[in-house]
């Protein structure tokens, strides 16, 4: 019995709609974040596809669950069309193919397309008027270098036996054969895990820095407020006049040695023009005109954010100190043998659960 069309439609139609939505959201998101004069069409398109593919890979899981659950009825038995193992294998093949395509696309984007788009956009120079062919050659050169570095890391991950060591009395050839057998047995998973772990380590380091800075800077920014846009525009105008004066002076006494300095000043002038344009847009927005009404809410939100940051910092500090003193060590993943010491976040969560329980009992009593 063939697979019903409504089953395939119910599984793949929402996934297709989700992919289109991911593509649209990714384009709008990256377009809004990019500066107008620094927008590179290739980098923007590649970034949009990469973000959309990442979101689509996450959206594939509900489609997988929907197709698998559609094989069985309410009683847990296979439906008539899914009673044949060959029909179930067709659905499994379709889902598996979708996983391979999406994750293969992500690997291609991460290691080839995105590095090439990044290096291609970085080679753009409005002052020197670098040609497209020169940018292509330079981007290809750096992309190949990036692939070589990734290949070296993959090789290191392949030759490091992560599961077990070779026998101590084996010869050099036996050890090489052991490494090859380990690589074949793991199907390259250890090598890829090593490479991804290195990238995740760098990403986690940056995430910790930016998150820690944001948890402290955001409350201060909300409580202390910002300078008025009018004053910012006046300061930008003064800086622009100063730069124009320097440019005029260098132009009157122009020599070859001053050309590089003039390029830097013109770049700074373009940055100030972009900043002034954004400030003018801010001054014309409704939110800026209502800033005196929203100011008290900003102060309250800043205080709440500061207390939340302090709560998280104290909880993490106490939890790490507890693990350092009473855990089973790094070999066991710093697991605590006994219930951990309660942190402020634990106490707050327990208070919330207790309040919900009291509210539920009160509702039952009134009922």
Automatic annotation (TrEMBL):
InterPro entries: LMBD1_LysCbl_Transport (IPR050854), LMBR1-like_membr_prot (IPR006876). It is found in: Lysosome membrane. The keyword rRNA-binding does not apply. Residues 255-285 form a coiled coil. The chain crosses the membrane at residues 12-34, 41-61, 97-121, 142-162, 194-218, 299-318. The keyword Metal-binding does not apply. One of its GO terms (biological process) is protein localization to vacuole. Keywords: Cobalamin, Cobalt, Coiled coil, Lysosome, Membrane, Transmembrane, Transmembrane helix, Transport. Its main location: membrane. Belongs to the LIMR family. LMBRD1 subfamily. PANTHER family: LYSOSOMAL COBALAMIN TRANSPORT ESCORT PROTEIN LMBD1, LYSOSOMAL COBALAMIN TRANSPORTER-RELATED. This is Putative lysosomal cobalamin transporter. It comes from Amblyomma triste (Neotropical tick).
């Amino acid at each position: 019995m063939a697979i019903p069309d409504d089953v395939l439609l119910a599984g793949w139609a929402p996934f297709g709609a989700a992919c289109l939505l991911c593509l649209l959201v990714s384009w709008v998101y990256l377009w809004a974040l990019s500066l107008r004069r620094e927008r590179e069409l290739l980098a923007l398109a590649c970034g949009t596809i990469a973000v959309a593919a990442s979101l689509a890979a996450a959206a594939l899981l509900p489609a997988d669950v929907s197709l698998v659950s559609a094989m069985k009825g309410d009683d847990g038995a296979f439906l008539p069309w899914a009673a044949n193992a060959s029909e179930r294998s067709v659905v499994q093949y379709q889902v598996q193919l979708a996983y391979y395509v999406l994750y293969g696309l992500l690997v291609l984007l991460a290691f080839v397309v995105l590095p090439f788009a990044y290096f291609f956009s970085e080679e753009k120079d409005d002052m020197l008027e670098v040609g497209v062919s020169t940018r292509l050659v330079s981007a290809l050169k750096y992309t190949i270098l990036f692939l070589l570095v990734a290949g070296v890391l993959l090789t290191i991950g392949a030759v490091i036996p992560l599961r077990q060591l070779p026998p101590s009395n084996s010869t050099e050839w036996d050890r090489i054969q052991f490494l090859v057998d380990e690589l074949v047995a793991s199907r390259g998973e250890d090598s890829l895990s090593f490479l991804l772990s290195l990238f995740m380590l760098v990403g986690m380091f940056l995430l910790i820095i930016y998150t820690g800075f944001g948890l402290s800077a955001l409350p201060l920014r909300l409580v202390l407020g910002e300078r008025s846009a009018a004053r910012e525009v006046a300061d930008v105008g003064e800086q622009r006049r100063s730069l124009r004066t320097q440019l005029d002076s260098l132009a009157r006494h122009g020599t070859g040695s001053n050309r590089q300095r003039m390029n830097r000043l013109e770049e700074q002038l373009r940055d100030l023009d972009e900043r002034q344009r954004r400030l003018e847009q801010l001054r014309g927005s409704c939110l800026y005109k209502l800033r005196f009404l929203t100011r008290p809410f900003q102060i309250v939100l800043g205080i709440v954010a500061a207390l939340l940051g302090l709560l998280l910092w104290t909880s993490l500090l106490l939890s790490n100190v507890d693990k350092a003193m009473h855990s089973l060590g790094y070999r066991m993943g710093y697991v605590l043998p006994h219930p951990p010491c309660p942190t402020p976040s634990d106490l707050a969560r327990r208070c919330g659960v207790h309040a919900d329980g009291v509210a539920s009992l009160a509702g039952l009593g009134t009922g």
